[in-house]
Amino acid sequence: MLSEKSTETVRATLPAVGAAIGDIADLFYTKLFAAHPELLRDLFNRGNQNAGLQKQALAGSIAAFATHLVAHPDTRPDVMLERIAHKHASLGVTREQYPVVHRYLFAAIAEILGEAVTPEVAEAWGEVYWLMANSLIALEERLYAGRQVLAGDVWRTWTVAARVEETADCTTFHLVPADGATAPSFKPGQYVSVQVELADGARQIRQYSLSSAPGSPARSITVKRVRGEGPGGGPDGEVSNHLHARIATGDTLRVSAPYGDLVLRDSAAPVLLASAGIGCTPMLSMLEHLADTGHTAPVTVLHADRSPADHALRADHRALAHKLADASVRFWYEAGAEPGDGEGRLDLADVTVAPGTAAYLCGPLPFMRSVRAQLLARGVSAADIHYEVFGPDLWLASAEASGPAPA
């Protein structure tokens, strides 16, 4: 993979580049958006940009990729690359955009590191970039081919067949193809991108897990309204608030083909589904699929939320689990817990975890870290613990850089 000469150069300069990678990423985005404002308007998540999350994810992924190549020059960090490729495919990213990124990224590296960027250093880090970029291009084009679409041509128009107010802040949109065509297949756990035109003309994109099962005639997404938390807490979510306030039954949305690497594996193994907050949405799709396919091994359904009133799709969550031959359900709430529910944070102390369990996690990073640690302590293999992050995957990049990553 990485040449011997470049490996030595990257190894020698990795501490300096790693220390400056945050500043490099910040300057890169400044330069990129100054030259191509349409990318910030119509492709990149402006909320994540304002919060600095995308910068952290980019910096972490580059550092993680370079660290992996130095330690294992003949292999690739495939888990990280697959996750990025699925997100890129859902946005319609194409190979023509990678040279643009290279131009402004290396301009930022040169400006931040100055004279330290000798021709040899530039060549070595250029090799790192193109190894990562070409790997992603190949993965993304394979994903497009799998959907039988031209590279980047992932968008179709869908009609809102119905909307259901699940909680004060969560609404489900049931979607059908506007042209009457058959809805594309997907795997339980995958997501779609939704693009909306906002008041300022920006066409912002967000990803939402499909909460329906693959066999359902419609496709359903459950959207939580993102509310700002006052000064310093960030603004309201642009797209979620637009969907809640402006999209009604009969309206149309631009929706991508389904993508995502957190998918339910077809096997006879016991399954554990642990979620928090709106992280329950991919779990509903998995549960319905397990019920539809007659899964007979034990299924453990766990969820944590603020209160029963905040738990979107709560009745469906329990009802789908009860369709299974061997399922147990436990919910935890910070307030308002009912008889049989747990109080406070999800705790596996009294939960039976069957040998050979495949675990799927979705929710805030602190929640998933806690559950993963508890599962590992209970003897679940790290390879059998899978997770989904809503937004930039800061956990995976840091894990790749420091050691074995979650699957």
Automatic annotation (TrEMBL):
Q: Could you tell me the Gene Ontology terms of the biological process aspect for this record?
A: cellular response to nitrosative stress; nitric oxide catabolic process
Enzyme class (EC, first level): oxidoreductase
Q: Which CDD domains match?
A: FHb-globin_2, flavohem_like_fad_nad_binding
For this protein, the record's Gene3D superfamilies field holds:
Globins (1.10.490.10), Nucleotide-binding domain of ferredoxin-NADP reductase (FNR) module (3.40.50.80), Translation factors (2.40.30.10)
Keywords from UniProt, A to Z, are: Heme, Iron, Metal-binding, NAD, Oxygen transport, Transport
MF annotations from Gene Ontology:
2 iron, 2 sulfur cluster binding; FAD binding; heme binding; metal ion binding; nitric oxide dioxygenase NAD(P)H activity; oxygen binding; oxygen carrier activity
Globin domain: from which residue to which, for each copy? 1-141
FAD-binding FR-type domain: residues covered: 153-265
Q: What is its EC number?
A: 1.14.12.17
Protein name (Swiss-Prot/TrEMBL): nitric oxide dioxygenase
Q: Which organism is it from?
A: Streptomyces roseus
Specify the taxonomic lineage: Bacteria, Bacillati, Actinomycetota, Actinomycetes, Kitasatosporales
